[in-house]
Amino acid sequence: MQDLKVVLRDDEMPRQWYNIQADMPTPLSPPLNPATGEPIDPEALGAVFPMNLVEQEMAQDRWIDIPEEVLQKLLIWRPSPLQRARGLEQALGTPARIFYKNEGVSPAGSHKPNSAIAQAYYNKQFGIKRLTTETGAGQWGSALSFATQQFGLELKVYMVRVSFEQKPFRKLMMQTWGAQCVPSPTLDTEVGRRVLAEFPDTPGSLGIAISEAIEDAVSSPDTRYSLGSVLNFVCLHQTVIGLEAQKQMEKLNLYPDVVVGCVGGGSNFAGLSFPYVRDRIHGRNVRILAAEPTACPTLTRGPYAYDFGDLAKTTPLLPMHTLGHDFVPAPLHAGGLRYHGMAPLVSRLVKDELIEATAVNQLDSYAAGMLWARTEGFIPAPETTHAIAAAIEEAKKAREEGRERVILLGWSGHGLMDLKGYEAYLKGELTNYEYPQEMIEKSLHALDGYPKL
Amino acid sequence: MKQARTGKAEAADRLLIRCRRLGHEVTFHYCRTQEGATVCPLIRDCWWQRLDIDACLARIVDADRLAQLQAGGGRPDRIGIMARIVEEHSRKDEGGAKGNREGE
Fold this sequence. Notes:
The complex is a heterodimer. By secondary structure, chain A is of the alpha/beta class. Chain A has helices spanning 42-45, 51-58, 68-74, 86-92, 113-125, 139-151, 161-166, 168-176, 190-198, 206-219, 232-238, 240-251, 267-281, 301-306, 308-311, 317-322, 344-351, 362-376, 382-401, 419-426, 437-445; strands spanning 5-6, 16-18, 63-65, 82-84, 97-102, 130-135, 154-160, 180-184, 223-225, 258-262, 287-293, 356-360, 406-411.
Protein backbone atom coordinates (compact mmCIF):
# COMPACT_ATOMS: atom_id res chain seq x y z
CA MET A 1 0.00 0.00 0.00
CA GLN A 2 1.29 3.45 -0.93
CA ASP A 3 0.46 6.61 0.98
CA LEU A 4 -2.13 8.69 -0.84
CA LYS A 5 -2.67 11.73 1.30
CA VAL A 6 -1.15 14.01 3.91
CA VAL A 7 -3.44 15.04 6.72
CA LEU A 8 -2.38 17.65 9.24
CA ARG A 9 -3.41 17.36 12.88
CA ASP A 10 -5.87 19.96 14.16
CA ASP A 11 -3.12 21.67 16.13
CA GLU A 12 -1.02 21.98 12.97
CA MET A 13 -3.51 24.30 11.27
CA PRO A 14 -1.96 27.70 10.43
CA ARG A 15 -2.69 30.37 13.08
CA GLN A 16 -2.22 33.35 10.79
CA TRP A 17 -3.40 34.39 7.34
CA TYR A 18 -0.86 35.65 4.83
CA ASN A 19 -1.39 39.15 3.41
CA ILE A 20 0.36 39.41 0.06
CA GLN A 21 -0.02 43.19 0.01
CA ALA A 22 3.03 43.33 2.26
CA ASP A 23 5.22 41.70 -0.40
CA MET A 24 3.79 42.94 -3.68
CA PRO A 25 6.37 44.59 -5.92
CA THR A 26 3.69 46.98 -7.20
CA PRO A 27 1.29 48.24 -4.55
CA LEU A 28 -2.37 47.93 -5.36
CA SER A 29 -4.15 51.08 -6.43
CA PRO A 30 -7.13 51.96 -4.27
CA PRO A 31 -10.59 51.27 -5.69
CA LEU A 32 -12.06 54.31 -7.41
CA ASN A 33 -15.53 55.69 -7.15
CA PRO A 34 -16.77 55.43 -10.73
CA ALA A 35 -18.85 58.59 -10.36
CA THR A 36 -16.06 60.83 -9.08
CA GLY A 37 -12.93 59.05 -10.22
CA GLU A 38 -11.59 59.58 -6.71
CA PRO A 39 -10.46 56.78 -4.38
CA ILE A 40 -13.33 55.39 -2.35
CA ASP A 41 -13.23 56.56 1.23
CA PRO A 42 -12.84 53.52 3.52
CA GLU A 43 -15.37 55.14 5.83
CA ALA A 44 -17.95 54.90 3.04
CA LEU A 45 -17.35 51.15 2.85
CA GLY A 46 -18.27 51.09 6.53
CA ALA A 47 -21.90 51.45 5.50
CA VAL A 48 -21.61 48.14 3.68
CA PHE A 49 -19.08 46.12 5.68
CA PRO A 50 -18.19 46.18 9.38
CA MET A 51 -15.19 48.39 10.06
CA ASN A 52 -13.06 45.50 11.30
CA LEU A 53 -13.29 43.98 7.82
CA VAL A 54 -12.75 47.36 6.13
CA GLU A 55 -9.54 47.68 8.17
CA GLN A 56 -8.51 44.21 7.05
CA GLU A 57 -9.16 45.25 3.44
CA MET A 58 -6.61 48.05 3.82
CA ALA A 59 -4.15 46.17 6.06
CA GLN A 60 -0.49 46.04 5.04
CA ASP A 61 0.68 43.64 7.78
CA ARG A 62 2.26 40.51 6.34
CA TRP A 63 0.65 38.15 8.85
CA ILE A 64 -2.78 38.53 10.45
CA ASP A 65 -3.81 36.35 13.37
CA ILE A 66 -6.76 34.04 12.80
CA PRO A 67 -9.08 34.54 15.78
CA GLU A 68 -9.49 31.52 18.04
CA GLU A 69 -13.26 31.42 17.39
CA VAL A 70 -12.63 31.27 13.64
CA LEU A 71 -10.03 28.51 14.03
CA GLN A 72 -12.50 26.52 16.08
CA LYS A 73 -15.12 26.69 13.34
CA LEU A 74 -12.61 25.99 10.56
CA LEU A 75 -11.71 22.78 12.40
CA ILE A 76 -15.11 21.38 11.40
CA TRP A 77 -13.48 20.41 8.10
CA ARG A 78 -9.96 21.78 8.16
CA PRO A 79 -7.10 21.09 7.77
CA SER A 80 -8.19 19.78 4.37
CA PRO A 81 -6.29 16.82 2.96
CA LEU A 82 -3.51 17.05 0.40
CA GLN A 83 -4.01 14.07 -1.85
CA ARG A 84 -1.96 12.44 -4.58
CA ALA A 85 -3.80 11.85 -7.85
CA ARG A 86 -2.14 8.52 -8.60
CA GLY A 87 -5.07 7.26 -10.70
CA LEU A 88 -4.86 10.28 -12.97
CA GLU A 89 -1.06 10.02 -13.19
CA GLN A 90 -1.37 6.39 -14.30
CA ALA A 91 -4.07 7.22 -16.85
CA LEU A 92 -1.84 9.91 -18.33
CA GLY A 93 1.31 7.80 -18.19
CA THR A 94 3.18 10.78 -16.86
CA PRO A 95 6.31 10.88 -14.71
CA ALA A 96 4.79 13.95 -13.01
CA ARG A 97 3.51 13.66 -9.48
CA ILE A 98 0.16 15.40 -9.15
CA PHE A 99 -1.04 16.52 -5.71
CA TYR A 100 -4.34 18.22 -5.04
CA LYS A 101 -5.63 20.24 -2.14
CA ASN A 102 -9.15 19.00 -1.60
CA GLU A 103 -11.40 21.90 -0.65
CA GLY A 104 -14.49 19.89 -1.54
CA VAL A 105 -14.59 18.46 1.98
CA SER A 106 -16.17 21.55 3.55
CA PRO A 107 -19.84 21.43 4.59
CA ALA A 108 -20.82 23.55 1.58
CA GLY A 109 -18.55 21.54 -0.73
CA SER A 110 -16.10 24.25 -1.75
CA HIS A 111 -13.44 26.65 -0.51
CA LYS A 112 -16.04 29.39 0.06
CA PRO A 113 -16.65 28.72 3.77
CA ASN A 114 -13.03 29.71 4.54
CA SER A 115 -14.03 33.35 4.14
CA ALA A 116 -17.71 32.94 5.04
CA ILE A 117 -16.75 31.78 8.54
CA ALA A 118 -14.34 34.66 9.01
CA GLN A 119 -16.81 37.26 7.72
CA ALA A 120 -19.62 35.94 9.92
CA TYR A 121 -17.28 36.13 12.92
CA TYR A 122 -16.11 39.70 12.26
CA ASN A 123 -19.68 40.89 11.71
CA LYS A 124 -20.77 39.26 14.94
CA GLN A 125 -17.85 40.90 16.76
CA PHE A 126 -18.92 44.28 15.39
CA GLY A 127 -22.44 43.83 16.75
CA ILE A 128 -24.12 43.05 13.46
CA LYS A 129 -27.21 40.85 13.72
CA ARG A 130 -28.10 40.24 10.10
CA LEU A 131 -26.26 39.84 6.78
CA THR A 132 -27.36 40.10 3.17
CA THR A 133 -25.70 38.74 0.09
CA GLU A 134 -26.40 37.78 -3.49
CA THR A 135 -25.74 34.50 -5.19
CA GLY A 136 -25.93 32.94 -8.62
CA ALA A 137 -25.69 29.17 -8.56
CA GLY A 138 -25.57 29.31 -4.78
CA GLN A 139 -22.01 28.33 -3.84
CA TRP A 140 -21.41 31.51 -1.90
CA GLY A 141 -24.99 31.72 -0.64
CA SER A 142 -24.82 28.23 0.82
CA ALA A 143 -21.36 28.78 2.33
CA LEU A 144 -22.53 31.95 4.05
CA SER A 145 -25.74 30.27 5.19
CA PHE A 146 -23.66 27.62 6.94
CA ALA A 147 -21.34 30.24 8.44
CA THR A 148 -24.05 32.61 9.73
CA GLN A 149 -25.80 29.66 11.35
CA GLN A 150 -22.55 28.83 13.16
CA PHE A 151 -22.44 32.34 14.64
CA GLY A 152 -26.17 32.88 15.22
CA LEU A 153 -26.66 35.60 12.57
CA GLU A 154 -29.65 36.06 10.29
CA LEU A 155 -29.04 35.94 6.56
CA LYS A 156 -31.05 36.96 3.52
CA VAL A 157 -29.77 35.69 0.17
CA TYR A 158 -30.90 37.35 -3.05
CA MET A 159 -30.58 34.54 -5.56
CA VAL A 160 -30.81 35.46 -9.23
CA ARG A 161 -34.21 34.18 -10.37
CA VAL A 162 -32.85 32.14 -13.27
CA SER A 163 -30.49 30.41 -10.81
CA PHE A 164 -33.21 30.04 -8.17
CA GLU A 165 -35.22 28.05 -10.69
CA GLN A 166 -32.29 26.04 -12.03
CA LYS A 167 -30.60 25.26 -8.72
CA PRO A 168 -33.31 24.09 -6.31
CA PHE A 169 -30.91 22.02 -4.23
CA ARG A 170 -28.60 24.93 -3.44
CA LYS A 171 -31.66 26.90 -2.37
CA LEU A 172 -32.65 24.01 -0.10
CA MET A 173 -29.15 23.89 1.37
CA MET A 174 -29.44 27.57 2.29
CA GLN A 175 -32.84 27.05 3.84
CA THR A 176 -31.61 24.00 5.73
CA TRP A 177 -28.90 26.18 7.27
CA GLY A 178 -31.56 28.68 8.30
CA ALA A 179 -31.11 31.42 5.69
CA GLN A 180 -33.91 33.21 3.89
CA CYS A 181 -33.35 32.69 0.17
CA VAL A 182 -35.47 34.75 -2.22
CA PRO A 183 -35.54 34.97 -6.02
CA SER A 184 -34.21 38.31 -7.25
CA PRO A 185 -35.62 40.71 -8.26
CA THR A 186 -37.95 41.00 -5.28
CA LEU A 187 -40.59 43.47 -4.18
CA ASP A 188 -38.53 44.02 -1.00
CA THR A 189 -36.20 46.66 -2.43
CA GLU A 190 -36.57 49.80 -4.50
CA VAL A 191 -34.37 48.46 -7.26
CA GLY A 192 -36.29 45.18 -7.36
CA ARG A 193 -39.66 46.91 -7.50
CA ARG A 194 -38.44 49.16 -10.29
CA VAL A 195 -37.25 46.23 -12.41
CA LEU A 196 -40.36 44.15 -11.78
CA ALA A 197 -42.65 47.04 -12.68
CA GLU A 198 -41.01 47.26 -16.06
CA PHE A 199 -40.25 43.59 -16.69
CA PRO A 200 -42.49 41.34 -14.58
CA ASP A 201 -41.11 38.16 -16.15
CA THR A 202 -37.43 39.04 -15.89
CA PRO A 203 -35.10 36.12 -15.13
CA GLY A 204 -32.99 38.54 -13.08
CA SER A 205 -29.29 39.19 -13.23
CA LEU A 206 -26.37 39.22 -10.86
CA GLY A 207 -26.25 43.03 -11.14
CA ILE A 208 -29.80 43.36 -9.84
CA ALA A 209 -29.19 40.83 -7.07
CA ILE A 210 -26.05 42.68 -5.93
CA SER A 211 -27.94 45.97 -5.92
CA GLU A 212 -30.79 44.48 -3.91
CA ALA A 213 -28.47 42.93 -1.33
CA ILE A 214 -26.51 46.15 -0.87
CA GLU A 215 -29.62 48.32 -0.73
CA ASP A 216 -31.06 46.03 1.94
CA ALA A 217 -27.80 46.17 3.93
CA VAL A 218 -27.44 49.95 3.89
CA SER A 219 -31.08 50.60 4.71
CA SER A 220 -31.73 48.03 7.45
CA PRO A 221 -30.69 48.24 11.09
CA ASP A 222 -27.80 46.08 12.35
CA THR A 223 -27.29 44.74 8.85
CA ARG A 224 -24.25 44.49 6.62
CA TYR A 225 -23.46 43.01 3.22
CA SER A 226 -21.17 40.06 2.62
CA LEU A 227 -19.19 39.20 -0.47
CA GLY A 228 -17.38 35.98 -1.30
CA SER A 229 -14.87 37.08 -3.93
CA VAL A 230 -12.89 39.98 -5.37
CA LEU A 231 -12.04 41.81 -2.14
CA ASN A 232 -8.63 41.66 -0.51
CA PHE A 233 -9.91 40.35 2.81
CA VAL A 234 -11.62 37.45 1.02
CA CYS A 235 -8.31 36.47 -0.61
CA LEU A 236 -6.62 36.86 2.77
CA HIS A 237 -9.02 34.43 4.49
CA GLN A 238 -8.45 31.88 1.75
CA THR A 239 -4.67 31.77 2.23
CA VAL A 240 -5.18 29.10 4.86
CA ILE A 241 -5.39 26.74 1.84
CA GLY A 242 -1.89 27.46 0.55
CA LEU A 243 -0.36 27.70 4.00
CA GLU A 244 -1.67 24.25 4.86
CA ALA A 245 -0.47 22.92 1.51
CA GLN A 246 3.04 24.21 2.22
CA LYS A 247 3.14 22.36 5.53
CA GLN A 248 1.83 19.20 3.88
CA MET A 249 4.33 19.31 1.02
CA GLU A 250 7.07 19.90 3.56
CA LYS A 251 6.10 16.66 5.29
CA LEU A 252 6.74 14.94 1.96
CA ASN A 253 10.03 16.79 1.49
CA LEU A 254 8.65 18.12 -1.76
CA TYR A 255 8.17 21.51 -3.30
CA PRO A 256 5.93 22.06 -6.34
CA ASP A 257 7.36 22.99 -9.73
CA VAL A 258 4.00 24.40 -10.69
CA VAL A 259 0.94 25.46 -8.70
CA VAL A 260 -2.30 25.37 -10.69
CA GLY A 261 -5.70 26.75 -9.79
CA CYS A 262 -8.86 27.93 -11.46
CA VAL A 263 -9.86 31.56 -11.40
CA GLY A 264 -13.39 32.81 -11.21
CA GLY A 265 -13.49 35.71 -8.80
CA GLY A 266 -9.95 34.79 -7.85
CA SER A 267 -10.35 33.96 -4.17
CA ASN A 268 -9.78 30.21 -4.37
CA PHE A 269 -6.79 30.73 -6.62
CA ALA A 270 -5.44 33.44 -4.35
CA GLY A 271 -5.84 31.17 -1.34
CA LEU A 272 -3.75 28.37 -2.77
CA SER A 273 -1.23 30.42 -4.67
CA PHE A 274 -0.39 33.54 -2.65
CA PRO A 275 1.91 31.78 -0.17
CA TYR A 276 3.75 30.37 -3.19
CA VAL A 277 3.77 33.75 -4.93
CA ARG A 278 5.53 35.00 -1.81
CA ASP A 279 8.19 32.31 -2.30
CA ARG A 280 8.50 33.30 -5.95
CA ILE A 281 8.92 36.96 -5.05
CA HIS A 282 11.75 35.85 -2.77
CA GLY A 283 13.52 33.94 -5.52
CA ARG A 284 12.03 30.47 -5.39
CA ASN A 285 11.67 28.75 -8.75
CA VAL A 286 7.98 27.98 -8.90
CA ARG A 287 5.46 28.63 -11.65
CA ILE A 288 1.99 29.78 -10.67
CA LEU A 289 -0.67 29.07 -13.25
CA ALA A 290 -4.21 30.48 -13.29
CA ALA A 291 -6.72 28.64 -15.48
CA GLU A 292 -9.86 30.31 -16.74
CA PRO A 293 -12.44 29.62 -19.43
CA THR A 294 -11.77 30.79 -22.97
CA ALA A 295 -15.31 32.11 -22.89
CA CYS A 296 -15.41 35.29 -20.89
CA PRO A 297 -11.74 35.43 -20.00
CA THR A 298 -10.62 38.13 -17.63
CA LEU A 299 -6.89 37.42 -17.53
CA THR A 300 -6.07 36.00 -20.94
CA ARG A 301 -7.89 38.25 -23.34
CA GLY A 302 -4.76 40.14 -24.34
CA PRO A 303 -2.72 37.04 -25.22
CA TYR A 304 -5.68 35.70 -27.17
CA ALA A 305 -5.79 38.74 -29.35
CA TYR A 306 -2.04 38.69 -29.90
CA ASP A 307 -1.81 34.99 -30.52
CA PHE A 308 -4.89 34.62 -32.63
CA GLY A 309 -3.06 33.13 -35.61
CA ASP A 310 -1.10 30.62 -33.60
CA LEU A 311 -4.04 29.57 -31.56
CA ALA A 312 -6.06 28.99 -34.68
CA LYS A 313 -3.94 25.91 -35.34
CA THR A 314 -5.20 24.16 -32.29
CA THR A 315 -8.34 25.82 -31.10
CA PRO A 316 -11.89 26.21 -32.27
CA LEU A 317 -10.95 29.54 -33.77
CA LEU A 318 -9.86 27.67 -36.89
CA PRO A 319 -13.33 27.12 -38.33
CA MET A 320 -14.12 30.75 -37.81
CA HIS A 321 -11.14 31.60 -39.99
CA THR A 322 -11.88 29.06 -42.65
CA LEU A 323 -15.42 30.28 -42.90
CA GLY A 324 -13.97 33.59 -43.88
CA HIS A 325 -15.38 35.62 -41.05
CA ASP A 326 -14.02 39.06 -40.58
CA PHE A 327 -14.16 38.32 -36.89
CA VAL A 328 -11.91 40.47 -34.79
CA PRO A 329 -11.49 39.64 -31.14
CA ALA A 330 -12.85 42.22 -28.75
CA PRO A 331 -10.43 45.04 -28.06
CA LEU A 332 -7.53 44.46 -25.75
CA HIS A 333 -8.00 45.63 -22.24
CA ALA A 334 -4.41 46.61 -21.84
CA GLY A 335 -5.22 50.06 -20.57
CA GLY A 336 -5.50 48.85 -17.04
CA LEU A 337 -6.47 45.98 -14.87
CA ARG A 338 -9.77 44.35 -15.56
CA TYR A 339 -11.67 44.69 -12.35
CA HIS A 340 -15.00 43.23 -13.28
CA GLY A 341 -15.46 40.09 -11.28
CA MET A 342 -11.76 39.44 -10.73
CA ALA A 343 -9.78 40.07 -7.58
CA PRO A 344 -7.53 43.10 -8.21
CA LEU A 345 -4.73 41.34 -6.28
CA VAL A 346 -4.73 38.47 -8.78
CA SER A 347 -4.95 40.84 -11.77
CA ARG A 348 -2.03 42.87 -10.45
CA LEU A 349 0.15 39.80 -9.94
CA VAL A 350 -0.59 38.63 -13.48
CA LYS A 351 0.38 42.04 -14.76
CA ASP A 352 3.60 41.82 -12.74
CA GLU A 353 4.29 38.41 -14.34
CA LEU A 354 4.35 36.59 -11.05
CA ILE A 355 1.33 34.58 -12.15
CA GLU A 356 0.78 33.06 -15.60
CA ALA A 357 -2.71 32.75 -17.03
CA THR A 358 -4.05 30.14 -19.38
CA ALA A 359 -7.47 29.60 -20.93
CA VAL A 360 -9.30 26.32 -21.36
CA ASN A 361 -12.37 25.78 -23.51
CA GLN A 362 -15.50 24.27 -22.08
CA LEU A 363 -15.25 20.91 -23.84
CA ASP A 364 -11.65 20.34 -22.74
CA SER A 365 -12.51 21.30 -19.19
CA TYR A 366 -15.47 18.94 -18.97
CA ALA A 367 -13.39 16.18 -20.60
CA ALA A 368 -10.79 16.73 -17.88
CA GLY A 369 -13.53 16.59 -15.25
CA MET A 370 -14.78 13.30 -16.64
CA LEU A 371 -11.27 11.82 -16.66
CA TRP A 372 -10.78 12.99 -13.09
CA ALA A 373 -14.08 11.49 -11.93
CA ARG A 374 -13.22 8.19 -13.57
CA THR A 375 -9.70 7.99 -12.16
CA GLU A 376 -9.85 9.82 -8.82
CA GLY A 377 -13.50 9.26 -8.00
CA PHE A 378 -14.50 12.74 -6.86
CA ILE A 379 -16.68 14.67 -9.32
CA PRO A 380 -15.19 18.16 -9.58
CA ALA A 381 -17.10 21.43 -9.82
CA PRO A 382 -17.11 22.76 -13.40
CA GLU A 383 -14.84 25.64 -12.34
CA THR A 384 -12.38 23.14 -10.86
CA THR A 385 -12.24 21.27 -14.16
CA HIS A 386 -10.40 24.21 -15.72
CA ALA A 387 -7.57 23.75 -13.25
CA ILE A 388 -7.61 20.01 -13.82
CA ALA A 389 -7.36 20.52 -17.59
CA ALA A 390 -4.40 22.86 -17.10
CA ALA A 391 -2.71 20.39 -14.73
CA ILE A 392 -3.21 17.60 -17.26
CA GLU A 393 -1.47 19.74 -19.89
CA GLU A 394 1.45 20.22 -17.50
CA ALA A 395 1.57 16.47 -16.83
CA LYS A 396 1.56 15.70 -20.55
CA LYS A 397 4.41 18.14 -21.09
CA ALA A 398 6.35 16.36 -18.37
CA ARG A 399 5.72 13.08 -20.20
CA GLU A 400 6.88 14.49 -23.52
CA GLU A 401 9.99 15.96 -21.95
CA GLY A 402 10.58 12.83 -19.86
CA ARG A 403 10.96 15.03 -16.79
CA GLU A 404 9.71 14.44 -13.30
CA ARG A 405 7.66 17.35 -12.15
CA VAL A 406 5.63 18.06 -9.04
CA ILE A 407 2.27 19.63 -9.78
CA LEU A 408 0.10 21.10 -7.03
CA LEU A 409 -3.52 21.53 -8.00
CA GLY A 410 -6.23 23.49 -6.23
CA TRP A 411 -9.28 21.26 -6.13
CA SER A 412 -11.71 23.99 -5.23
CA GLY A 413 -14.94 22.06 -4.86
CA HIS A 414 -17.11 19.13 -5.79
CA GLY A 415 -19.63 19.17 -8.60
CA LEU A 416 -22.46 17.24 -7.00
CA MET A 417 -24.71 20.28 -7.26
CA ASP A 418 -23.63 20.89 -10.85
CA LEU A 419 -24.63 17.66 -12.49
CA LYS A 420 -26.84 19.53 -14.96
CA GLY A 421 -23.64 20.85 -16.52
CA TYR A 422 -22.28 17.32 -16.79
CA GLU A 423 -25.60 16.21 -18.26
CA ALA A 424 -25.36 18.92 -20.93
CA TYR A 425 -21.81 17.78 -21.71
CA LEU A 426 -22.77 14.11 -21.88
CA LYS A 427 -25.69 14.89 -24.17
CA GLY A 428 -23.42 16.85 -26.48
CA GLU A 429 -25.23 20.11 -25.80
CA LEU A 430 -22.06 21.91 -24.81
CA THR A 431 -19.91 22.96 -27.69
CA ASN A 432 -17.03 25.25 -28.38
CA TYR A 433 -17.73 26.75 -31.75
CA GLU A 434 -19.68 24.31 -33.78
CA TYR A 435 -22.70 26.31 -34.66
CA PRO A 436 -23.05 26.80 -38.42
CA GLN A 437 -22.93 30.51 -39.00
CA GLU A 438 -25.58 30.46 -41.69
CA MET A 439 -28.05 29.03 -39.19
CA ILE A 440 -27.24 31.75 -36.74
CA GLU A 441 -27.59 34.38 -39.43
CA LYS A 442 -30.89 32.90 -40.46
CA SER A 443 -32.17 32.83 -36.93
CA LEU A 444 -30.99 36.34 -36.23
CA HIS A 445 -32.85 37.66 -39.24
CA ALA A 446 -35.91 36.91 -37.22
CA LEU A 447 -34.95 39.91 -35.12
CA ASP A 448 -35.09 42.29 -38.05
CA GLY A 449 -37.91 44.71 -37.68
CA TYR A 450 -37.82 44.73 -33.91
CA PRO A 451 -36.97 48.10 -32.42
CA LYS A 452 -33.36 48.46 -31.34
CA LEU A 453 -32.70 48.70 -27.65
CA MET B 1 -42.57 49.78 -21.79
CA LYS B 2 -39.59 48.27 -23.56
CA GLN B 3 -40.25 44.98 -25.25
CA ALA B 4 -37.91 42.14 -24.51
CA ARG B 5 -36.83 40.71 -27.83
CA THR B 6 -37.66 37.17 -26.90
CA GLY B 7 -38.36 36.92 -30.63
CA LYS B 8 -37.80 34.03 -32.93
CA ALA B 9 -34.04 33.66 -32.79
CA GLU B 10 -34.52 30.09 -31.63
CA ALA B 11 -31.41 28.57 -33.15
CA ALA B 12 -28.80 30.82 -31.58
CA ASP B 13 -30.95 31.31 -28.51
CA ARG B 14 -30.70 27.67 -27.56
CA LEU B 15 -26.91 27.68 -27.44
CA LEU B 16 -25.65 26.96 -23.96
CA ILE B 17 -22.69 28.46 -22.18
CA ARG B 18 -21.50 28.29 -18.62
CA CYS B 19 -21.91 31.73 -17.10
CA ARG B 20 -18.85 32.36 -14.96
CA ARG B 21 -20.71 34.96 -12.94
CA LEU B 22 -23.74 32.83 -12.10
CA GLY B 23 -21.93 29.49 -12.01
CA HIS B 24 -24.30 27.49 -14.17
CA GLU B 25 -25.33 27.02 -17.79
CA VAL B 26 -27.40 29.71 -19.43
CA THR B 27 -28.71 30.13 -22.95
CA PHE B 28 -27.71 32.83 -25.38
CA HIS B 29 -31.28 34.02 -25.05
CA TYR B 30 -30.64 34.79 -21.37
CA CYS B 31 -27.47 36.72 -22.19
CA ARG B 32 -29.28 38.93 -24.67
CA THR B 33 -32.43 39.53 -22.64
CA GLN B 34 -31.17 39.93 -19.08
CA GLU B 35 -33.14 42.20 -16.80
CA GLY B 36 -36.00 42.01 -19.24
CA ALA B 37 -34.55 43.64 -22.30
CA THR B 38 -30.92 44.51 -21.78
CA VAL B 39 -28.03 42.46 -22.99
CA CYS B 40 -25.44 41.33 -20.46
CA PRO B 41 -22.48 43.74 -20.48
CA LEU B 42 -20.15 40.74 -20.82
CA ILE B 43 -21.94 39.26 -23.83
CA ARG B 44 -19.08 40.04 -26.23
CA ASP B 45 -16.48 38.59 -23.86
CA CYS B 46 -18.39 35.36 -23.46
CA TRP B 47 -19.60 34.71 -27.00
CA TRP B 48 -16.76 36.07 -29.13
CA GLN B 49 -15.39 32.62 -29.77
CA ARG B 50 -18.63 31.04 -30.87
CA LEU B 51 -20.65 33.66 -32.70
CA ASP B 52 -20.07 36.63 -34.91
CA ILE B 53 -21.21 38.48 -31.88
CA ASP B 54 -20.89 42.00 -33.23
CA ALA B 55 -23.06 41.17 -36.24
CA CYS B 56 -25.51 39.58 -33.87
CA LEU B 57 -25.53 42.54 -31.50
CA ALA B 58 -25.99 44.91 -34.40
CA ARG B 59 -29.41 43.34 -34.86
CA ILE B 60 -30.29 43.51 -31.18
CA VAL B 61 -29.06 46.86 -29.89
CA ASP B 62 -28.79 50.33 -31.32
CA ALA B 63 -25.51 51.74 -32.59
CA ASP B 64 -24.78 53.70 -29.41
CA ARG B 65 -25.22 50.70 -27.18
CA LEU B 66 -23.15 48.55 -29.52
CA ALA B 67 -20.37 51.11 -29.41
CA GLN B 68 -20.64 51.15 -25.62
CA LEU B 69 -20.43 47.36 -25.45
CA GLN B 70 -17.44 47.37 -27.81
CA ALA B 71 -15.73 49.91 -25.62
CA GLY B 72 -16.31 47.74 -22.58
CA GLY B 73 -18.84 50.08 -21.06
CA GLY B 74 -21.26 49.06 -18.36
CA ARG B 75 -19.17 46.15 -17.16
CA PRO B 76 -20.23 44.79 -13.81
CA ASP B 77 -18.26 46.28 -10.97
CA ARG B 78 -19.28 45.46 -7.43
CA ILE B 79 -17.23 48.21 -5.88
CA GLY B 80 -18.83 50.70 -8.26
CA ILE B 81 -22.31 49.45 -7.40
CA MET B 82 -21.47 49.70 -3.71
CA ALA B 83 -20.18 53.24 -4.03
CA ARG B 84 -23.25 54.30 -5.99
CA ILE B 85 -25.76 52.79 -3.56
CA VAL B 86 -23.99 54.15 -0.50
CA GLU B 87 -23.92 57.59 -2.10
CA GLU B 88 -27.59 57.45 -3.04
CA HIS B 89 -28.46 56.34 0.46
CA SER B 90 -26.41 59.13 2.05
CA ARG B 91 -28.08 61.69 -0.21
CA LYS B 92 -31.51 60.43 0.86
CA ASP B 93 -30.55 60.71 4.51
CA GLU B 94 -29.16 64.21 4.01
CA GLY B 95 -32.34 65.15 2.14
CA GLY B 96 -34.38 64.61 5.28
CA ALA B 97 -35.40 61.04 4.78
CA LYS B 98 -35.56 59.27 8.09
CA GLY B 99 -32.40 57.30 8.72
CA ASN B 100 -33.29 53.73 9.42
CA ARG B 101 -30.07 52.46 10.94
CA GLU B 102 -30.82 53.97 14.30
CA GLY B 103 -30.83 50.49 15.77
CA GLU B 104 -27.03 50.36 15.53
